[in-house]
């Protein structure tokens, strides 16, 4: 009998450990915050009615969070006192946006489910809804992440791919996060919505030869050649349907109308050419692969169980 009780206790402990460190689940908040989904969706609808571009911005926010320390909400932390966050990193400064929308979602969630839902999970849900509300696919978002109490300016500067990256560098950067070349090409399709700053595509439109001449001339109208001139001027990543989530991005690549150097690298005589052509001709395939890759990216090193915390304010670590 004693051995049976010992075995029973051991099993119970193992189950508890599994629950604390197990996989994320779409039903994680089913009992603790059953209205989470509708709250996020309603707040996102309001945000996109104010500015449709925000859908693209929140997809990018999720990407920039997950690639640095994992999907832990670290990108949301402000610099406070001696604490240095990730917002000032080269790929993020004056570029990553949407923090106010996350703040609003968090405030709305806290009204009904105080202290329950992590900021990291809110970012993941906002990215999904931003995609769907602009005409893209939807998916069940695995939930149960907790929020980091740390951030890394150095990792933000080193781990986020540059818009000037070549294909090999992109494949390596995504591979380092457990993402395949197919994931890279599918996730890059997020550039079917949103805008980029002149400083990030100037080199491509003036110096590269793998670009449609008429397209380069069009972009040069608002992006001067001189460094420091018009750096923050915006251009749509997809000139045809810049605020609709579709597969036009890949048709642009086939026509050598990728705005960023890193975009056009996906269709430039390399290993991803065939997949780009498939996505350009088959929007359903792209939508399916994109959704799957977003789930996979959302699984990069999440904090679960008792790790991290549930921040009450997404911008600062809870005071002890």
From TrEMBL:
Heme b binds at residue 191. Its cofactor is Ca(2+); heme b. Its EC number is 1.11.1.7. The active site is at residue 64. Binds 2 calcium ions per subunit. Ca(2+) 1 binds at residues 65, 68, 70, 72, 74, 86. Substrate binds at residue 161. The keyword Calcium applies. It is found in: Secreted. InterPro entries: Haem_peroxidase, Haem_peroxidase_sf, Peroxidase_pln, Peroxidases_AS, Peroxidases_heam-ligand_BS, Secretory_peroxidase. It is an enzyme of class 1 (oxidoreductase). Disulfide bonds join 33-113, 66-71, 119-314, 198-223. Its main location: secreted. Removal of H(2)O(2), oxidation of toxic reductants, biosynthesis and degradation of lignin, suberization, auxin catabolism, response to environmental stresses such as wounding, pathogen attack and oxidative stress. Belongs to the peroxidase family. Classical plant (class III) peroxidase subfamily. Belongs to the peroxidase family. Ascorbate peroxidase subfamily. This is Peroxidase. It comes from Urochloa decumbens.
């Amino acid at each position: 009998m004693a051995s049976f009780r010992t075995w029973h206790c051991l099993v119970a402990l193992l189950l508890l450990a599994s629950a604390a460190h197990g996989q994320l689940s779409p039903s994680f908040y089913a009992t603790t915050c059953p209205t989470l989904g509708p709250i996020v969706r309603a707040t996102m609808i309001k945000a996109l009615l104010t500015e449709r571009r925000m859908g693209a911005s929140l997809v990018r926010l999720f990407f920039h969070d997950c690639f640095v320390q994992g999907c832990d909400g670290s990108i949301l932390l402000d610099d406070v006192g001696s604490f240095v966050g990730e917002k000032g990193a080269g790929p993020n400064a004056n570029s990553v946006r949407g923090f106010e929308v996350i703040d609003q979602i968090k405030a709305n969630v806290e009204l009904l489910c105080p202290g329950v839902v992590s900021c990291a999970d809110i970012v993941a849900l906002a990215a999904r809804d931003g995609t769907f509300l602009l005409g893209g696919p939807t998916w069940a978002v695995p939930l149960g992440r907790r929020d980091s109490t740390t951030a890394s300016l150095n990792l933000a500067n080193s781990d986020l791919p540059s818009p000037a990256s070549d294909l090999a560098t992109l494949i390596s950067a995504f591979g380092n996060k457990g993402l395949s070349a197919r994931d890279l090409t599918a996730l890059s399709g997020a550039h079917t919505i949103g805008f980029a700053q002149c400083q990030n595509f100037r080199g491509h439109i003036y110096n590269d030869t793998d670009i449609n001449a008429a397209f380069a001339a069009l972009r040069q109208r608002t992006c001067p050649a001189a460094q420091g001139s018009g750096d923050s001027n915006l251009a749509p990543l997809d000139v045809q349907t810049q605020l609709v989530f579709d597969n036009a991005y890949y048709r642009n690549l086939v026509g050598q109308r990728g705005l960023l150097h890193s975009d056009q690298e996906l269709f430039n005589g390399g290993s991803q050419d065939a997949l780009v052509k498939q996505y350009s001709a088959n929007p359903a395939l792209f939508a399916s692969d994109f959704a799957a890759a977003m789930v996979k990216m959302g699984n990069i090193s999440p904090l679960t169980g008792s790790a991290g915390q549930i921040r009450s304010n997404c911008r600062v670590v809870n005071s002890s």
